[in-house]
Amino acid sequence: MEEILRQVGQAFVQAIPTVIFVALLALILERLFFRPVTAILTAREDASEGARERARQRVELAEAKGQEYDAAWQKARQEVYRQREADRRNILAGREAVIRQAREQADSLVQKAQASLAAQADAARAELGIATQSLAEEIANAILGAQTPGTRGGFSS
Fold first, then answer.
1. Please, how many CA atoms are within 13 Å of residue 44, restricted to the half-sphere of its CB?
2. Going by C-beta distance under 8 Å and a sequence separation of 6 or more, which residues neighbour residue 154?
3. Gap between the Cα atoms of 114 and 154, Å rounded
4. pLDDT tens digit string along 35-61?
């Protein structure tokens, strides 16, 4: 057992330079390699996080601009619809005015025609009355003139 302890002790003594070399190598690697690489990776992560944040801000800005654009588009569309409706109302009002004026002219022409017809009818009645009177007198003269002096009304006494 003593021999084993001595061999273990001798192995430890022989391992001391290796341990020192490994510790020294770890220290050198830490200072010369791992710290710069860690710094670079940290800077890279910060840069990517910053880029992500800037990208997120740009996306939010783009969404806000998109919403503004949509709102402006909707407003313009509503304005066009309002303008179309106003134009349509104006056209309908103009059409109504033209129709009203045409109706008034037609009513005026109808009233004039009715008045003219009434005047013509009155004139025709008057003419017919005169013609009737004249015809009645002719008939009466013809009947009375055809009678003989001793007969009255076509009956003999």
1. 6
2. 147
3. 48
4. 999 999 999 888 888 888 999 999 999
Contacts of 156 (CB under 8 A, 6+ apart): 150
Kindly give, in sequence order, each residue whose CB lies less than 8 Å from that of residue 157, ignoring residues fewer than 6 positions away. 150, 151
The answer to whether 150 and 157 are in contact (CB under 8 A) is: yes
Distance spanning both ends of the chain, measured CA to CA: 201
**CA 107, CA 114: separation in Å to the nearest integer?**
10
* CA separation for the pair 47, 54 (Å, rounded): 10
Closest CA to 147 of 135, 157, 133, 134: 157
User: What six digits make up the tokens of 6?
Assistant: 């001595």
Report pTM: 0.42
pLDDT for 144 equals 84
Domain boundaries, the chain: 8-139
Give counts: helices (H), strands (E), the chain. Answer: 2, 0
Return the structure tokens found at 94: 């103009």
Residue pair 117/110 in contact (Cβ under 8 Å)? The answer is no
